[in-house]
Amino acid sequence: MNEKSSISALKGVGEKTEQMFQKLNIRRIDDLIRYYPARYEIFEEPVPISEAKEGKTCTVAGTVFGRIQVSAGKRLQVTTLHLKDITGTLKVIWFRMPFLRNTLSRGGLLILRGRVVRRREGLVMEHPEIYYPAEKYTEKLHTMQPVYHLTNGLTNNAIIKAVHQALEYANDNQDILPANLSSARGLLPYREAVAKMHFPKSKEEYIEARERFVYEEFLVFILALRRNRQDENRAGNRFYFYDQPEIDRFLREIPFELTGAQNRVWDEIRHDMQGDYVMSRLVQGDVGSGKTILAFLSLFLAGLNGYQGAMMAPTEVLARQHYANLISMLDEYHLPLKAELLTGSMTAAQKRRAYARIESGEVSIIIGTHALIQEKVTYHDLALVVTDEQHRFGVKQREALAGKGSMPHILVMSATPIPRSLAIILYGDLDISVVDELPKNRLPIKNCVVDTGYREKAYAFMRRQVAEGRQCYVICPMVEESESLEAENVTDYARMLSEELGGSIHVECLHGKMKQQEKDEIMEAFGRNEIQILVSTTVIEVGIDVPNATVMMIENSERFGLAQLHQLRGRVGRGKYQSYCIFMTSSDSDETKERLDILNHSNDGFFIASEDLRLRGPGDLFGIRQSGILDFRIADIFQDASILKKAGEDASGLLEEDPLLEEPDHRKLREYIDAKLQQIMLETTL
Length: 686
Known about the structure:
Layout: H1 15-23, H2 29-33, E1 39-42, E2 57-70, E3 78-85, E4 88-95, H3 100-103, E5 110-119, E6 122-131, H4 135-138, E7 144-147, H5 156-166, H6 179-184, H7 190-198, H8 203-233, H9 245-253, H10 260-273, E8 280-285, H11 291-304, E9 308-312, H12 316-332, E10 339-342, H13 348-360, E11 365-368, E12 382-388, H14 395-402, E13 409-414, H15 420-426, E14 431-435, E15 446-451, H16 455-467, E16 471-475, H17 490-501, E17 507-510, H18 516-527, E18 533-536, E19 549-554, H19 562-569, E20 580-585, H20 590-601, H21 605-616, H22 641-657, H23 667-685
């Protein structure tokens, strides 16, 4: 038995357990070795109750003060006690555990460990673990216990037992990192690092192990991108794109001038499409910077030269809006091109007719969703592929659409603001253009950060905006009421707001649990101003343009990341009217104030991303996050920016020294990368 053996070879892993592991994509022992903990339970000395902080998980010790109460509600029984020490008293609650009243009424020292939140009555510890008698906590003191992502039927203890066995088969021969790089960067050997990753004895051990695997993840990712890029660079441009007078006329006749940044990026795109090699370009711009017109110009250039261009949007409603805008432009400016819309909700007959027009070449521009990459779609001569909102698509979808043509040009549009230094490393397979200038007629959004006491004034302000014919968004972080969170929720909030504002103002709610058709119908009705106020979760982060929407109010704004708040704010300010964003917060922590103050004083997404990076610094190392832009197991492009920079430098040095990674010390790394690329290709075809 070795690291390539099936997970079923481990003691205690029978057929049913093996199936549960497979749901987590763990099939072999080496899969389990690299299945890192999602987080760690860190057992430290209890803190005085007066030092319990909002939003933190902490341990407190004390005695029960007063009576333990159990609510008599039908839906949910809540057990409540007050824990007291010499520094103060803390309210503690548990859900559906009424038996605790008898268990905890015996007296003596009680140790509780849980998350502290702010409710209307003050700080509350919710559903903590109980250590009674207190000696039970002493057994875990100063240890770090791994906590893994689970699936139904598989416990954390079962994974821990399996990992202990799997680690017996981990050895330094499996290390894919070249020895000279590990030595130069002072990284732990593989066997030691993987053991400390799963079962660190201290924070310092964890940080050291994590740095090693973050570096490895970044190095593999960057090398894979650049090896792909090397292949693409060898692909010659088989298309002939000539400048078209219709495009020059179009740019003269439209009622606005391109900004300097738009003109610069358009020149870069045109130069690529007319060059010797296939284009692979990322156009990165802030929300509202005018990237869509650049995509349309590129599609016009392809169509007017006798080829086809396809643009894939992340949602049907956005695809339909792009299509409607495109058709309007083609008609108004007399451009001799035909366009087609292709989405999943179309009937079979509608799709058959669309497929026929696409295959015959009758249409030059195709706008759609993932339906564009279905097996039945055959393009006549696809020369350009545009993907909108890149962070909503994986590499697989991009490659699948590109595979519909014979090495078409690739243009990726992204509104996710990333500092350019990181973008150059991360998008090593793409040339990068930045639209860093907003249209001249765009009024800056006015921002304000307020507490919940401002809510009535906010409602009055929205009433006035609606009376003037405008529309509003209200964003809530949840769909339905939670047992454990006080965050505003969409369904109840929409009902309450409708009653508050009266029947003359139509309020609707929108959330991710709705069917796609229902979501599209609501967004389209909002676009027609049949709905004046839309209460939504973050599903509208990528939505249609509604130039008439002028107010964005975000409830519990402290629960969102800065980049996401900026994306949400970008839903307003798209028309000729002055727009406003109200960040409502129920937190009075200094950290929240500093974060929201950045948004209060800047509308620049790139500056906000840089400030987010500065504030987060090393970040919460014990809660492993995904970047929101690219999915890594443990790495985070903001938190680990310094490691990313080192990996980028080393990747460049490796490829300069050994472009094909053929030297003996590089072969394991090359084999690992090749296996990753094959896996992506396989998943793309499935």
